């Protein structure tokens, strides 16, 4: 897997959001970095977290564990987490094969993720 893994957390342009931009592959050795970044966003007190996977070409099932736990934690705090692409074929297939895409709020890109209304509040 890539040693070029990077996650940056930035303020979103709208919706009181933080955006986690992931660059590089995510596997069992690097998933903890994403977990750490998502933990920081929950503590930041923003209404929305956007996980941008557009820079991720490969991800194994490790990412699902991290995203599922983060999704549960966000929901428990009344926060919205949106996972966006555009997704690589490998990442898209991982969601499709595991049937997990229905558990997440997915968007085509960061702009769409920032504008998407919160399903819980309609805002």
Automatic annotation (TrEMBL):
Residues 16-117 form the STAS domain. SUPFAM superfamilies: SpoIIaa-like (SSF52091). Signal peptide: none annotated. One of its GO terms (molecular function) is anti-sigma factor antagonist activity. Belongs to the anti-sigma-factor antagonist family. This is Anti-sigma factor antagonist.
């Amino acid at each position: 897997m890539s040693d070029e893994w990077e996650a940056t957390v930035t303020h979103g342009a709208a919706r009181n959001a933080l955006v986690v931009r992931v660059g590089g592959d995510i596997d069992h050795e690097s998933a903890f970095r994403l977990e750490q970044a998502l933990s920081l966003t929950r503590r930041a007190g923003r209404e929305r977290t956007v996980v941008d996977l557009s820079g991720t070409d490969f991800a194994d099932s490790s990412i699902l564990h991290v995203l599922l736990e983060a999704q549960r934690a966000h929901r428990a705090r009344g926060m919205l987490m949106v996972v966006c692409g555009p997704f690589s074929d490998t990442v898209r297939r991982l969601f499709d094969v595991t049937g997990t895409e229905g558990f997440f709020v997915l968007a085509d890109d960061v702009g769409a993720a920032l504008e998407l209304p919160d399903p819980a509040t309609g805002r």
